[in-house]
Design goal:
The protein has 16 helices and 2 strands. With 328 residues, the protein is mainly alpha-helical.
């Protein structure tokens, strides 16, 4: 029994659940009571989908310096894999999750094995080419994907109520964060950090860069598959737009604005940026420009993103509190 408790304690120490995070989670749990079942809850659901995608993207970009320019394609692969399994084979959407994770994991693994031995932007370019190919397949393989007409996907719940979907995506967001933080703070995560900081030094210390890059890249793609699975069965219709590279730009922006290498910063950025841009809907043709402006401002004035800003505020508050106690 004591061994079991020590194991749980080790897991919680590795994921670093702070009191602030616990309070935010409690607020999120009662959010449907605050907002009701309507437009604003749907907006938060969409934000949490992009929060998961941002965390998955940051897992590769922030720790092994791999920019996956085709990340939205993996979301699309997961979405279409689940949708096709459900519509063609008549399986439950919950079995579709297995198909989404397996398909994105296999493709991510193969792409990683082919490209991650090389330095530079080879992996980024190949991921982008893959995204273009997936987008083309989604448009032209009408017999499988129904092309631009859209693939009708069965829902997770036969209800118009958004609340069950909200709790599912909230659970997925929390589990994704806990999983990534656990991996990052494990021995494997130490190898990721070593590769990201100095590849040659990591090699000299006995780390196999290709092995750990492929592991990281595969896990990152599988997370995109999970988000794609939920996207498919929440919106219940899939069009080739889900694989478009403009969605990758949004994911990249959320990751960088949230704070590269922070993981949790993507959650904060998604929950702030997406609702903000919703209020700027009349300017939606300038959406990518707005993301670009946010990125430039963050990179110039606050490279650590929202996560660093939050940590600095918390540190300053703690210092002021300590100073007040000393003066008293």
């Amino acid at each position: 029994m004591s061994e079991k408790k020590s194991g749980l304690k080790l897991i919680f120490n590795k994921v670093h659940i702070s009191p602030v995070a616990a309070i935010i989670l409690l607020i999120m749990l009662i959010m449907p009571l605050i907002l009701g079942d309507g437009f604003y809850l749907r907006l938060i659901i969409t934000s949490l989908i992009f929060a998961i995608l941002g965390m998955g993207f940051d897992f590769s970009n922030g720790f092994i310096n791999i920019l996956n320019f085709g990340y939205a394609a993996f979301m699309g692969i997961g979405a279409y894999a689940s949708g096709i399994v459900c519509t063609k084979l008549g399986l439950s959407p919950w079995f579709g999750l297995i198909a989404a994770v397996l398909m994105t994991g296999i493709i991510g693994f193969l792409l990683g094995v082919l490209t991650l031995r090389l330095r530079g932007i080879f992996a980024a370019c190949m991921a982008w080419f893959l995204a273009l190919a997936v987008h083309s397949v989604a448009i032209n393989w009408v017999g499988l994907t129904r092309g631009s007409s859209g693939l009708i996907v069965p829902p997770l719940f036969f209800t118009v109520n958004n609340i069950p979907y909200y709790y599912i995506i909230l659970i997925l967001t929390v589990l994704t964060y806990l999983f990534l933080k656990y991996v990052v703070n494990s021995q494997i995560g130490m190898a990721f950090l070593a590769i990201g900081q100095d590849l040659d030094a990591a090699k000299a210390s006995g780390v196999n860069p290709t092995k750990y890059k492929v592991i990281n890249f595969t896990l990152s793609c599988m997370i995109a598959g999970v988000a794609g699975w939920f996207y498919a069965h929440y919106f219940k219709i899939l069009t080739p737009e889900v694989t478009h590279t403009t969605k990758t730009v949004e994911i990249l922006a959320i990751s960088y604005i949230g704070g590269r290498g922070s993981i949790w910063g993507s959650i904060l950025a998604a929950l702030i940026l997406l609702p903000l841009l919703e209020y700027l809907k009349p300017m939606m043709e300038l959406r990518l420009i707005l993301y670009g402006v946010f990125l430039i401002l963050i990179m110039i004035y606050y490279p650590g993103g929202m996560a660093k800003l939050f940590n600095d505020i918390r540190a300053r508050f703690s210092d002021n509190k300590l100073a007040g106690q000393l003066e008293a």
